[in-house]
Amino acid sequence: MVYRMKKNSSDNRIRRWLIILFWMAIWEIAARLTDNSIILVGPIDTLRELWRLSGDLGFWLSVLNSLLRIASGFLLSSALAFLLGTIAYFKPILRELMSPVIALMKAVPVASFVILALIWLGGSRELSIVVSFIVAFPMIWEAVISGLSTSDRQLLEVSRTYEMGFFRSLRYIYLPALLPYLSTSLSSVIGMAFKSGVAAELIGQPTGTIGFYLYQSKVFLDTAGVFAWSLMVIMMSYICEQILKAVFKTASKRI
């Protein structure tokens, strides 16, 4: 049984890599047929440009700068959404009060938040923090409330009968129900946070960030640079997502 599970997992990984290679081949063929590096470059040229950029210290400082800012906004949003979402589950009045705010955060375009942040903050350095916070908050809020709502009612009745107390009920009943929802939500939200955070940098153009250099690549019609920086964002998002999954996997085993 264990051998079969390992074999299936290995087969799935191989299949996934074959699919990725298939689409990279299509991409490379399309680039060669286009034969215009301004319109489209292939994966080989993209990786070559990324390798060239990686030899520059400024490249890694820009990546680190964007990573820290976007991750800060995401983590702040996650912590606050978890706290307020938990309170709102037990105090429905807070959920009602917050519902217009959540709807507004979901509906207003990212570009509008960026412009407002530029007006209110008077600068562009904190843009990616603010925007990634705003994008992540409503999704995590809803995941927290949905996850807590699936808590086992019979176990909750038992906890009340034996007077387990709020914190023990939260630890042994609510958290196991919440973690799957939170894990799925955060894995999706982290990608949205990176995309919106870099988009904010692209509009605000704070120096020494990924968004700033993406804009410079666009100005100079450096399509290979656009693809290389975009690939770096994808890689950052993927690594952060895998770290989150590992954290939740460890947390699930300990509960």
How large is the count of helical segments?
A: 10
Quaternary status: single chain
Element order: H for helix, E for strand: HHHHHHHHHH
SSE class: mainly alpha
What is the number of strand segments? 0
Q: Let me know the average pLDDT.
A: 85
Helical percent range? over 70%
User: Major sheet: size, sense and barrel closure?
Assistant: none
Termini separation: 25 Å
Content of β-strand: under 5%
Unreliably modeled segments? none
| Overall geometry | globular
Radius of gyration from CA coordinates: 22 Å
Description:
With about 260 residues, this protein is mainly α. Helix content is about 85%, strand content about 0%. The longest helix has about 40 residues, at about 165-205. The chain is globular. The two termini are about 25 Å apart. The model has no long low-confidence stretch (mean pLDDT about 85).
Short description:
With 255 residues, this protein is an all-alpha fold. It has ten helices and no strands. 86% of the residues lie in helices and 0% in strands.
SSE blueprint and pairings:
Layout: H1 2-34, H2 43-54, H3 57-90, H4 92-107, H5 110-121, H6 127-149, H7 153-161, H8 166-204, H9 210-219, H10 223-254
Helix pairs in contact: 2-10, 3-4, 3-6, 3-8, 4-6, 5-6, 5-8, 6-8, 8-9, 8-10, 9-10
What key attributes describe this structure?
single chain, 255 residues, mainly alpha, 0% strand
